């Protein structure tokens, strides 16, 4: 750990915070399972705890009372045990449906506020004691609050505060740094950032369109809400979001296996547990329309998406298309205009707007939209230009 303390503040920031955050963000793209993300989150908490523990152990002096060190160690241990317990509980809830787990969550919901207050108080206590240890090592005397309040604030406002903290640590270590390793970590971080951006830009669920007719599918858009969602407790929120994600991933598998009704049922369950996730409504709308010809139900789901996120251009695009099929041309045109405003580079939007204006007998603007769609690479627009505009 002595070598670790000699690193510069930017390198420590990358190692402790930015690189772990980027790795965590990329885990969902590497696996469909939630386990790696849960385990990595717990591992990161342990990693930061080890850093704090070794800081105090390395720099403690006789100017810090022994009871402070004990208070630091006990609170750090209890914090890790709480996070380990919660992580294990959420992990078991996600992959098992044991009845006693629901009872455990019911019990925890009653002490939610108390646990949260303790976590905050214990966290601040651990960080303030660490600040006192580093300051006492530097000043070599009994401390007053004025001596250490600035570095205590730096600890409380991690990770930004790491730049002040590591500067003091480097001063205690005679200012020695390892620049080469710093450059290596910066380069590694740039690569992960680039990969993260690429993953997020390409992470769009695409459901292939097909045909499947059924007369006995009845859609009910009034989704029942589980009563404990109204409690808005920390533990229920964690559990429900994970359950919803698991149900949605199973819905995708069912869709690709041809079980479209099973996919719809799983998305319904996901919405029960997480009613604000727009992906669930958007993909249910796609399946309802393409596989069950439920046009009105699909429009209702896309309207829900827009109510939650008014910047979702795909929801406007699809709803505009459904309005077009339903011969509601004015509503369709309004939605397509909004879709183009939010994303002016999507060629299909111009093609659809051209079709709408053609229906509304606006041939000049229709041809203008076909030309824009063709310029953006839409091959169908070329046919429309030849057929309608020449």
Briefly, what is this?
The chain is an all-alpha fold. The protein folds into two domains: 2-202, no CATH class; 227-389, Serine Threonine Protein Phosphatase 5, Tetratricopeptide repeat (Alpha Horseshoe).
Tell me the major beta sheet. none
The end-to-end distance, rounded to whole angstroms, is: 75 Å
Quaternary status: single chain
Order of helices and strands: HHHHHHHHHHHHHHHHHH
- Structure classification: mainly alpha
Mean pLDDT over the full residue set: 78
Describe the 3D structure.
The chain folds into two domains: 2-202, no CATH class; 227-389, Tetratricopeptide repeat domain (Serine Threonine Protein Phosphatase 5, Tetratricopeptide repeat, Alpha Horseshoe). The chain contains 18 helices and no strands. The protein has helices spanning 2-5, 9-30, 35-59, 66-95, 99-110, 112-139, 145-156, 162-172, 179-202, 234-256, 260-273, 278-292, 295-308, 313-325, 329-342, 347-359, 363-375, 379-389. Helix 2 (9-30) crosses helix 8, helix 3 (35-59) packs parallel to helix 6 and helix 12 (278-292) runs antiparallel to helix 13. The model is unreliable at 176-181 and 203-237 (pLDDT under 50). It is elongated. With 390 residues, the chain is an all-alpha fold. The longest helix is centred in the first third of the chain and has 30 residues, at 66-95. The chain is 76% helix and 0% strand.
Please describe the structure with a list of short key phrases separated by commas or semicolons.
mainly alpha, Serine Threonine Protein Phosphatase 5, Tetratricopeptide repeat, elongated, 76% helix, single chain, 390 residues
């Amino acid at each position: 750990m002595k070598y670790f303390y000699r690193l510069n503040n930017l390198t420590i920031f990358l190692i402790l915070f930015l690189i772990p955050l980027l790795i965590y963000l990329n885990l969902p793209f590497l696996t469909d399972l939630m386990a790696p993300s849960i385990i990595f989150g717990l591992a990161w908490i342990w990693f930061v705890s080890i850093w704090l523990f070794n800081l105090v152990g390395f720099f403690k002096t006789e100017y810090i009372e022994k009871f402070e060190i004990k208070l630091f160690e006990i609170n750090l241990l209890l914090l890790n045990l709480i996070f380990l317990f919660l992580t294990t509980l959420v992990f078991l809830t996600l992959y098992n449906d044991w009845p006693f787990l629901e009872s455990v969550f019911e019990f925890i919901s009653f002490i939610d506020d108390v646990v949260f207050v303790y976590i905050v108080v214990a966290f601040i206590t651990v960080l303030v004691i660490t600040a006192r240890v580093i300051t006492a090592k530097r000043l070599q005397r009994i401390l007053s609050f004025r001596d250490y309040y600035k570095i205590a604030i730096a600890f409380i406002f991690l990770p930004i505060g790491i730049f002040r903290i590591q500067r003091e640590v480097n001063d205690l270590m005679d200012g020695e740094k390892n620049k080469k390793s710093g450059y290596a970590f910066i380069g590694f971080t740039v690569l992960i950032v680039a990969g993260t951006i690429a993953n997020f830009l390409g992470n769009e669920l695409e459901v292939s369109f097909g045909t499947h007719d059924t007369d006995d599918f009845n859609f009910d858009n009034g989704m029942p809400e589980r009563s404990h969602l109204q409690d808005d407790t920390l533990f229920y929120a964690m559990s429900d979001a994970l359950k919803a994600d698991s149900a949605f991933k199973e819905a995708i598998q069912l869709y690709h296996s041809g079980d479209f009704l099973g996919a719809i049922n799983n998305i319904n369950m996901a919405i029960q547990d997480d009613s604000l996730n727009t992906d669930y409504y958007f993909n249910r709308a796609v399946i309802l329309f393409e596989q069950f010809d439920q046009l009105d139900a699909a429009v209702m789901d896309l309207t829900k998406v827009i109510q939650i996120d008014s910047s979702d251009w795909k929801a406007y695009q699809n709803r505009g298309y459904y309005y077009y099929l339903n011969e509601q041309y004015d509503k369709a045109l309004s939605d397509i205009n909004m879709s183009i405003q939010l994303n002016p580079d999507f060629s299909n939007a111009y093609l659809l707007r051209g079709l709408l204006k053609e229906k509304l007998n606006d041939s000049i603007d229709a041809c203008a939209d076909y030309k824009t769609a063709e310029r953006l690479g839409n091959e169908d627009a070329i046919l429309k230009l030849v057929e309608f505009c020449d």
